[in-house]
Amino acid sequence: MALRCAAPGRVRWLARALAGPARLLPPAAAAPGPPGPAWACPPQPSARFASTAGPGTEGPQRRVVVVRITSPFAWLRTRFYYLLIRLYFDQEFSIEEFTRGAKQAFSVVSKLLSQCKLDLLEELVSAEVLQVLKEKISLLPDSHRDALAADIDAIMYTTEGDVRIYYDDDGIKFVSILMCFWYLNGANLPDEVPGEAKVFQIVFGDENTKEKKHLLTANYEFQREFTEGAKPDWTITRIEHPRLLE
């Protein structure tokens, strides 16, 4: 289910969070934002485990290797949009720095969702999306709420789903970037939960000690106004946790 703006939203924060991996921006002034269509993420990548063993380890150590085949057309299109952003909006824009900040923001917001601390999301998420979250989050079972949380170290793969540039009749300019995340979570979900990539059995220590992890996906859309004089702040205008937040 896509939780996104149904009407012009409010642009508040994340300038510092999206500018680097270790900084968060305090609340900023609000600005209107246009609605946008729901853009789908690219196909989910495959994943496999590879065993490694180092000095002092007992038994095999496991890591996740994500393999993804990117459409050349999609890759060129997003790179063209990044060039437009640097040429006409922000000469210092870097998708690498943006991605690092987006991962940090995703981890923070997903944990607040899992903990039902919705009041703390008011400066992080658009008002329209927050209203939908308040209606949905209280209806989730505990296992689904636990599965929403993504530790920063548990994010296995991050990619851009789509990039859009908007102009309205008043000359207000917006950039919207949809980020797709794949993360491991140890919530007690049933094995037959639909929509997952796979349920992995991760072995730590020896074969008698097993910890089950779920590889889950989430889609978060970030939007910023680039009109002259507007604050350089980003807000989250769409949240998806497929098969969990419905």
TrEMBL record:
* Biological processes, Gene Ontology terms: protein insertion into mitochondrial inner membrane from matrix
Note the superkingdom of the native organism.
Eukaryota
Q: Name one GO cellular component term.
A: mitochondrial inner membrane
Q: Which GO terms describe its molecular function?
A: ribosome binding
PANTHER family reported for this sequence = M-AAA PROTEASE-INTERACTING PROTEIN 1, MITOCHONDRIAL
Spell out the protein name for this chain.
Answer: MAIP1 protein
Look up and give the organism this protein is from.
Answer: Chaetorhynchus papuensis (pygmy drongo)
The encoding gene is Maip1
